[in-house]
Amino acid sequence: MEQIIPEPPRIQLLDGATIDRIAAGEVIERPASVVKELVENALDAGATSITIKMEDGGLTSLVIEDDGSGIPFRDLPLAFERHATSKITAAADIMHVGSFGFRGEALASIAAVSRIRCVSRFMGEDMGGMIEIEGGELVRREPAPRNAGTTITVDDLFYNTPARRKFMRTAQAERRAILKLVTKFALAHREVRWLVRHDKDVLLDLLPAPSLTDRTRDLLGPAVIDHLARFRFEKGGFSIGGLASRPTFTRGNREHQFLFINRRPVQNPALSQAIFQAYREVIPAGRHPVVIAFLEIPAGEVDVNVHPAKTEVRLLLEREIFGMLKKSLQEGLSLRQADELRPWVAGQDAPAGTGAPLAGIATAQDDYLREHFQRGGSAGYEYRGVPQGQGELFGSRALRDDPAQQTGSGVVSEPSGTGADALHPAPFWQLHRTYIVTQIRGGLVLIDQHNSHERILYNEAQKALAAGGRRVPTQQLLFPAHLDLTPGQVQAWQGHASELGAMGFTIEPFGGQSILVQGLPASVKNWHEGQLLLDILDDLSWDEHPSQEHQVDLLASYACHGAVRAGEPLTVPEMQNLVDQLFATDTPLSCPHGRPTLIQFSLAELEKRFGRT
Ligand code: ADP
Ligand code: MG
Prior knowledge:
A hairpin with a 3-residue loop joins strand 16 (428-431) and strand 17 (435-440). The protein is elongated, with a radius of gyration of 32 Å. It has 19 helices and 22 strands. The chain starts with 15 loop residues before the first helix and ends with a helix. It is 32% helix and 21% strand. By secondary structure, the protein is α+β, with helices and mostly antiparallel strands. Among the domains are: 16-206, Histidine kinase-like ATPase, C-terminal domain (Heat Shock Protein 90); 212-332, Ribosomal Protein S5, domain 2; 473-522 and 527-562, Ribosomal Protein S8, Chain: A, domain 1, CATH 3.30.1370. Helix 9 (269-279) packs parallel to helix 10 (318-332), helix 14 (449-466) packs across helix 17 and helix 15 packs across helix 16 (531-540). An eight-stranded mixed β-sheet has the order 5-4-3-6-2-1-7-8, covered by helices on one side. Strands 9-10-13-11-12 form a five-stranded mixed β-sheet, with helices on both faces. Strands 16-17-18-22 form a four-stranded antiparallel β-sheet. The structure holds adenosine-5'-diphosphate and magnesium ion. Adenosine-5'-diphosphate is lined by residues 37, 41-42, 45, 66, 68-71, 79, 84-87, 101-108, 150.
């Protein structure tokens, strides 16, 4: 029998139009990609005014008009050829490219999948020109009048690639994507006048803005501006700067985070992570800050040729840049304003009563205090003269096994030997069993006892976890508590047993669904005969977060349930300890959920309100 050999498939080169159409798919995904490429070309051409007009979300028609340098008449057809660019001449230039474009693909790609028309006049020429291309084929080219600059009209995008066309979302979604994109460019290019129209509507009309704050106000709205602080950081040839929201102002998603490298809008997971980490302890889980960050990086340190649309970049010193961004945010956001907010009495240091906080004037005593505050943890507390063993917020005497304590009526004796009080005799009052009032150098503060204690417990437990539970102060229960758990609680306990141990809980399995609790972290205020632990385990039941997140959840839950509540009376030493410990944390201004721990009233404000000025 003769074997039938099938005809082999023939390998052949694709024709140019097909190659272009395939390549176009990478760069031109949707109308916003067209806008991106054409806006970049306009910026590369030095435009000071850019107008974008769209119909039907850009699917029917998109027009981008600029007043840049224009394209010489003889080069017009060349501009639409693949790999035709005026911006680099050799591969070696790629790492040092200062322009947005350099691949010479955008116009060719757009022309392959639409009907495109370009009218342009080069600034060095008297007459402009016009060129029309349909699906990659040149259909017309003739002289045409125009002011210096370029207008590109893209009609019927994807008319010849029906599959792609089908994937387009609604005109509204495309319009939103275009607006978001222009917002990014407009933040980075404040010198440009931007106009965006959709059909008859003006969506954006921005005059050149003198400052980032002005441009941000125009784009994100005046309500946001008051919540933003500047940050800036420089090192070597690198600089990072911009605006970011204080931790009390957050958003439900990351849409308000704008990252730029050398004024190019970019996405980079490491940089997003740096923002997340900078804020994670001062804002609630699931909330996101507003951040507008400009990174200036020497051209040789960043590779923009990773992604055809160049929105993703590769950073050669990613770890360093990550650290710089995180640090610049943490410092610039005044998360460490603690120095001006510490309890203070007149005469303690530099002249008082001026109404202005004396930030930056460090006396020897300030240094002394700062050194002790910054030692952090309970170890930093002896300086105040509070006896050892009361280093914890409520001391070991606050063991919550005493029923009197649990009702909140327990009276704690005054600590003895507070010899160093003379150093720092700030008075404390409790208002409505909820707020602590004390004087600070520039005025007074109202401190929320629950939020503050949450912050303290959170940071303490976090340190304990980081140290693997070594030398964590614990309180042994006089009567170990026997707790029956629900299945969800069992699962949560099993999932977090080692962490709970590191935080200072001594827990043993007690058969079946039961556990025996013998010890607690020393600073816990509300043990409530085990309810604290049950509450935490409930919060963590069926928790499916990845491991990092899951520690944060544990810490937040522990802090929330373990903290002193509103309505609980506090003694003066307790208040004093609470305030001291609060300022010993790195992040004293907000609780782990992002609520403020304190409200400050400046002397200047009081003077104004009492008509003294
Ligand atoms: P690239 O921007 O990577 O060079 P493009 O396909 O986007 O590639 O553009 C090709 C060339 O056309 C550019 O290098 C530039 O010389 C010219 N060009 C495109 N758009 C404009 C414009 N708006 N103004 C002036 N020149 C332009
Ligand atoms: Mg380009």
